[in-house]
Write a structure and sequence with these properties.
CATH topology of one domain: Cathepsin D, subunit A, domain 1
CATH architecture of one domain: Beta Barrel
Radius of gyration: 18 Å
Number of strands: 25
Oligomer: single chain
Strand order of the largest sheet: 1-20-21-22-19-23-18-17-16
CATH superfamily of one domain: Acid Proteases
Largest sheet: 9 strands, mixed
Length: about 280
């Protein structure tokens, strides 16, 4: 349910949440794949409406491609036509679930990804038409999610527009990270929120909207749609007040244990230390 649209009369939210195999076993990031590393280097970010986008992504030595970096999805996605042109063949199918339903999607395993100094093998991709993303940004050809990101410690520098790979010791308070359905989440005053670089707004699950008139819209996902509204909330992490304002309210509880999605636009930098399960927010 990673969000890719503005909240207006319509809101597009697509292509994240959890993935499950056809046999109902969850397809999730294996914690054993996380590898601590020294400082590896950095790649430039484009920030489009709050979402980080990177160039020079290579898949199986093909590229360069332009992908969204999405901390809020546990999968990697690639545009179906591009996958076919590269000779990628579906080797499995999964049930991709969202707040509005689910959809069976093909995927490929055993792939190699290179982004600047960061390389990862044994990578899985789901094949998707990415129509909601490509309608907004036709030059984007895929999404890098936690299947890739969980391999590294990294710094999202939104102010400096860089993604830096490698272990560091930043100043600031360490906030514990928990993996929920293969995605990084943090404990907040509003419950456990997934850190979601694809979400334009704070999104809360299982919350009845306070406003529908003038504040309503539709949640559109790869699997369906529903009416949503807004609520006024304040957000704090570790006793530190970070934000107050209108959040998107979704009456249904999208997934057990997840209170909602927290956008990265609230911060200047975010250091994610997967090797030691903590984050530092500035």
């Amino acid at each position: 349910m990673t969000a890719f649209g503005r909240l207006a009369t319509r809101m597009t939210v697509a292509l994240s949440s959890r993935a499950r195999s056809a046999s109902a076993a969850k397809v999730m990031v294996c914690a054993g794949l996380t590898v601590a590393s020294p400082i590896l280097g950095a790649v430039k970010l484009q920030i489009r409406e709050g979402r980080p986008i990177v160039d020079n992504v290579f898949v199986n030595n093909h590229g360069p491609f332009r992908f969204i970096v999405d901390t809020g999805t546990n999968v990697n996605l690639i545009e179906s036509g591009l996958a076919k042109s590269m000779g990628m063949v579906a080797t499995f199918r999964v049930d991709l679930a969202s707040a509005t339903g689910s959809m069976l999607m093909p995927g490929s395993n055993g792939n190699q990804i290179q982004l600047g100094p960061a390389e990862a093998g044994a990578q899985q991709f789901l094949f998707a038409d990415l129509k909601d993303i490509r309608r907004q940004w036709p030059d984007v050809q895929g999404v890098l999610g936690q299947w890739f990101l969980a391999r590294f410690d990294y710094l999202l520098d939104l102010r400096g527009k860089q993604l830096e790979f490698g272990t560091r010791t930043p100043s600031g308070t360490r906030t514990p990270l928990t993996m929920l359905n293969g995605r990084s989440s943090v404990a907040t005053s509003l419950g456990d929120l997934v850190l979601d670089s694809g979400a334009p707004d704070l999104i809360l699950f299982g919350v009845v909207p306070e406003r529908l008139d003038g504040g309503s819209g539709f949640l559109l996902t790869a699997t369906g749609s529903q009416i949503i509204g807004k609520v006024v909330r304040s957000l704090a992490i570790g006793g530190r007040n970070l934000w107050s304002g209108s959040a998107v309210a979704i009456p249904t509880q999208a997934e057990p244990g997840v209170a909602g999605l927290m956008p990265i636009r609230f911060f200047k930098t975010i250091y994610v230390c997967n090797s030691q399960s903590y984050a530092v927010f500035e």
